[in-house]
Design brief:
The chain is flat. It is built from five helices and no strands. It folds into two domains: 31 residues; 66 residues. It has 101 residues and is mostly helical.
């Protein structure tokens, strides 16, 4: 229990920052009209390429014998890739709706 309390006290500013970011994100997304929600989310999904790059860096810097880190990195790359592809597919579908026939 003391380890957990010392972890919170050492990272107090970071914890406050994450909590504040959650509240700001909820307010920003809550203010988006429903007609813009899908384009916003498809663009956000495409931005998840940062997750892929971060996961690759973590995998490169990890110990080759640490299978847990490598597995977590592989899953992050896989899910990030699916999210990026899904974002581009949804964006392409939405743009097709506005093309003249």
């Amino acid at each position: 229990m003391e380890n957990i309390l010392s972890l919170f006290s050492e990272n107090e500013q970071m914890i406050y920052f994450v909590i504040l970011a959650v509240f700001v994100g909820i307010e920003v997304i809550g203010g988006v009209p429903s007609i813009l929600h899908t384009p916003l989310m498809s663009g956000a999904n495409a931005i998840h390429g940062v997750v892929i790059v971060g996961a690759i860096f973590v995998m490169l810097k990890s110990d080759p014998e640490n299978y847990g880190t490598l597995l977590a990195g592989f899953i992050a790359v896989l899910l990030g890739t699916l999210n990026v592809v899904g974002g581009f597919v949804v964006t392409d579908r939405m743009l097709e709706m506005f093309k003249k026939k």
